[in-house]
Fold these 2 entries.
Entry 1:
Amino acid sequence: MAEEKEMVSIYIMGKQYRVPYGVTIMKAMEYAGYRFIRGCGCRGGFCGACGTVYRKPGDFRLKVGLACQTVVEDGMHLTQIPFYPANKATYNLEELTPTLATLLRHYPEMTRCLGCNSCTRICPQELQVMDYMAAAQRGDIAKAAHMSFDCLMCGLCASRCPAEIVQYNVALLARRLYGRHVAPRAEHLARRVEEIKAGKFDAEIERLMKMDRLELQKLYDARDIEP
Amino acid sequence: MYTPEMLESIKIVEQTRPRRLKETFPRLTPEEKDRLLRSFHPDHMPDAQRPVRVGPNKGDKMPHEHVGLLESRSMLDPDAFSLDRVDYDVDVLVIGGGGAGTSAALMAQEAGASVLLATKLRHGDANTMMAQGGIQAADKENDSPAIHYLDVMGGGGFSNIPELVAALVLDAPLCIQWLESLGCMFSKFPDGTMNTIHGGGTSRKRMHFAHDYTGAEIMRTLRDEARNRGIPVLEFSPAVELLTDEHGQCAGAVLFNLETQQYLVVRARTVIIATGGCGRLHIGGFPTTNHYGATADGLVMAYRAGAKLIFLEATQFHPTGVAFPEQILGQLVTEKVRGLGAQLVNAEGEQFVYPLETRDAVSSAIIRECRERGKGITTPSGRQGVWLDSPMIDIIHGKGTIERELPAMVRQYRRFNIDMTQQPILVYPTLHYQNGGILINERAETGVPNLYVAGEASGGVHGRNRLMGNSLLDIIVFGRRAGTNAAARAKTVQLGRLTLDHVRRFHEELAREGLLGQRTAPILLPDYRGRIV
Ligand SMILES: Cc1cc2nc3c(=O)[nH]c(=O)nc-3n(C[C@H](O)[C@H](O)[C@H](O)COP(=O)(O)OP(=O)(O)OC[C@H]3O[C@@H](n4cnc5c(N)ncnc54)[C@H](O)[C@@H]3O)c2cc1C
Ligand code: FES
């Protein structure tokens, strides 16, 4: 029942291979004989390991995409960017304050943004990268954190940035600042932790641990379920 | 983009939709469920499993794919491999840079140990990164660790090890608080209250989440913290064998630099295995949701050193893996889609199972629908699937719900020109989770002195069936425990001479059983060359 697969030609680092039509770049490379070490992580669009640069025939423009999410086309030239030597600041999150000054201290190059929008155009997650960087430059940590939340840290934005900003690391710092210092703590969580430390549930758990299967099953079947 | 045949089938689904919106499919009775599982669950297929013939679990039945690896020889020749040069000498060696390994490394270092983390791909290229749904913890007023305990036990068919479950549920709120303090952006209400929802098998709404990137948010937070604290990490350097001393204690590991093809010898006072699951073994020929490095390496290494395995006969198949488009075959369609009201529908536009039965039952029902009843939908490459009627969600909860609640999913399908807000999606069960693993106790210790295990590589806490949201929890709970305990133990450990004696003995046992062939394990990476997988 499998229908005859059409084949297309792709050029992996300049070398021609015939691969089935309609498959992802990642699967096409494997079909062509590659066994990945770098450039392949989750295979599902979550880890950002598989950034790839490609060009279609008759087009001078370079495009980028995730190899596990981008489908091959006839005549495509491509290469992976498995690693990019990007700058990452180190910090002790606990001691930081959620302010513009903190961002600038760790990533002073932020201010070099030229507003070219290359980062937004390139983002495989379709994030408004330049806009979240603008929020960061205003010190709006919450906005930068929320707008960048779906970032996979694939690094493609940084690879195209003429100002050599590492957007995804700035965003990571913004999110951690937000999560730690801006978003209110969950009070119910803190209360529960205190109760556990005080041993409030120990006796009940111990009683359950001693029950045999039938007793547990009875309790389980009778438990009420929150609507 | 759907084929014309599929579009025809979708028309039928649309025709029956108004009627189905008012229809609730009856739940299975316990007897029906039992019969369904026994006839159609992949664990129960005749010829799916065989007894392993060597090692601590000799005689126990497991899937062929596991047995094949456990009965393989080491990559190393124990008589020829030189251990004279020690490349790294540390207190704690952590093997595996996912959520469990990174938590362990952070805690071990905090406890004053010198730590080395070795991982196969990049730090964070792991199943942890892929988890969307959420993480459980009983921290709300109407909930308690005891209620959580009961849910975990019931989910696991009461086969779980009680001490491990007690540790899991009692540590859970502490772990969420730890993640919160590290800046993990959980989805919260404006006053800081955690937004929590149900998951399959929960009796309280205790599923915490970070949109639908929960695992990614946890992983990138832990990884950033490890980088900030300067924990040394060796990427692309998987462990291929443990080391033991002459007293049979674990004493380190041999790593293999995948890029330079060189071996590295690590002496360590304690070792933590956190190598995750086994999806890339494609048990039963199923596609998988797992990351590229999920090849059960930790099980193979620990087994040779004498650690016992548990519950490997029970593999978790997720009922809704992508069946089409081919490009993302086997990837996860989160349970949340059914949770929000989407029904499972066959080629005739009819429901055939209550959508929120347990994962094993829904998987079996889909397999029955396609295999026995012939009511599946066939894809261009000849695979089968059933419809998951996603557009129902917006009809039930209002336009825009799908976009808001499932942005990662919508984006995923849109890349392949399928709009899941307007069209149903095609699904079939996929290999998702290794329910069992290396047997540990509540201190994350194995039977081998100095060897600890945490996360998906371990076994016992979930019994034969893990519930959604308890795995992300388990990796933090036992990752932290492993790190703390391994660091404490490292202070007093006296190591003897480094050896591969356990490997020699294992090879001898293989030879006695006539099994010492050419096949080596761990396999480290799957081999998809020349194929489309
Ligand atoms: C798509 C998907 C969705 C999921 N959704 C949820 C959810 O919503 N809730 C939930 O609770 N759970 C979920 N799970 C399960 C959960 O994410 C995993 O079980 C858990 O994250 C495993 O963590 P881990 O640290 O044990 O393993 P992993 O995160 O897989 O990390 C193991 C690491 O070890 C490395 N490694 C492997 N072999 C070696 C070796 N020989 N040497 C060195 N390193 C090695 C791997 O490459 C990897 O980096 C999901 C899983 C998947 C795949
Ligand atoms: S392999 Fe992880 S995003 Fe492509």
Entry 2:
Amino acid sequence: MLLLQFILIGISIGSVYALIALGTVLIYKATRVINFAQGELVMIGAFIGYTSLVSWGLPIFIALPVTLLLSGVIGYLAERFVLRRIAHGPLISVIMVTLGLSIFLKGGVTGVWGTSMYSFPKIFPESTINLLGIKLPQVYFWSMVVAVIIFVLFVFFFKYTDLGLAMRGVADNQKAAASLGVNVFSVVGLSWVFSGIVAALGGILLANISLLNINMSDVGLKAFPVVILGGFDSLLGAVIGGLVIGVIESVAGGYLATIVSGAIDQVVAFAILLIILLIKPQGLFGTKEVERL
Amino acid sequence: MILKLDKLSLSFGGIQALNGVSFEIKEGELFSLIGPNGAGKTSVINAICSFYKPTKGEIYFKDKLLNPLKPYNITALGVSRTFQNTELFAGMSVLDNIKLGSHNRLKASTLSGMFHLPWAKKEEREEEKYLREEILKRLGLDEVRNRFVGTLPYGLQKRVDLGRALASRPELLILDEPVAGMNNDESRDMVECLLHFKKAWNLTILLVEHDMEVVMSISDRIVVMNFGQKIAEGTPQEIQNNEQVITIYLGKQYEKDVS
Ligand SMILES: Nc1ncnc2c1ncn2[C@@H]1O[C@H](COP(=O)(O)OP(=O)(O)OP(=O)(O)O)[C@@H](O)[C@H]1O
Ligand SMILES: [Mg+2]
């Protein structure tokens, strides 16, 4: 019973990891850039959510769209005014730029919101929900639901819309896409918008699970084991990677933490990361080998 | 006059890839561009499609200056191209490759397409039917329409490349070595398809090709290039009898065929 509880909690947290990793994958697919600022997008999204709910006092059904919109705009601006300027530079420079972006964003957040702990207004009922005989706090349950909805939307978008087709085309071959009339810059910009939006959703969910503070951006580091496990260019990989990492972390934290002192759950994801890189460098579902740094 | 190049020059660092190239293509013509490796044929195509920015000279498509445009603006004008090293969407199905070719035709593309509003759906369905009937079946690709392009044999990939270029319903179709690497049968089929589309769709074609048998048998006019310069222009007959062309290109080509 205890194991099942750890697994369910792992799946919920893993759903949030998957959302965050999804943003990394979208950007990677469109541009082959590994975005080191993903965690900062998550944190900023959560802070914007906090501000619109608390400081502006908006009801959740207005605050949520406003937050997602603003987060999408931040993603867009990052691409338009930072990444695009160096888009055709050497890959390592582009990646360093995303690192710089992460520092810049973190500095901006410190300036506006400071470094103290915020308690995010609970947007889900604080009661528990009964799932497979386990009493699970509602926020965990809703995290899974949100993640599932987002993934279904993306699958639908990529499979059935013309714009989704164009995005897949850009991910596959930019030169060919451009020659067919696809505005590659718009598509790349759009993948940053999407990335900002899913990051913000992840941030709001995380802030509901624990507290909100500048260090939330560290979750961005969790996106790396997830995408390396799943493969940088696979949406499904992000989902499975997120769930696997979430569950292992939760189970390891639950059982091992009592035996091995210290925050074993923090380390487990990176232990898995190392093992996977040794065995299958392109990730479990990735198709191409990721460029070495 | 559908396409006009006026004293086009292009250089990469120290390399002068094109040097004052001028020619005009008439509507409905099958116009070929030939010359030895490195002559600048592909560079001409890339300049027309705005992938390369000419250092000097102008390119006009139906009196519209193409120089300032971006690559993705060119298709909408009615120009499409294939690539010498087939640049396909290898991880996508044949049908998706072709559909993306007609990308700029779907008016109801973004929002209504995203939410699948009825009229967008109808337009899309009609487009798909057209693509299948008029392009995929003609090119013998309908049976493999759901296969990933990357898994297809080379000959079929070349056809997908052609189909995708056709899907945008161009007026000017630019082909960079469409039969390269094909055996005789494949090559004959490909040429047959080309001629069918040219006639049925009233296409103007700019063809770059090393297969002289094909070039000489289907071209209306030919321009020969060498080291970035135009060295001759004329009908296939005139080109075959041009001493200079024979010396620097056709002679060699002939030896290659014999050996
Ligand atoms: N992107 C580029 N960067 C640098 N040099 C280039 C580039 N593209 C073409 N060139 C150079 O320009 C010249 C013309 O090349 P181009 O590809 O146009 O020749 P081509 O006539 O198409 O030859 P082939 O028959 O081999 O395809 C060559 O010297 C080539 O090395
Ligand atoms: Mg060439």
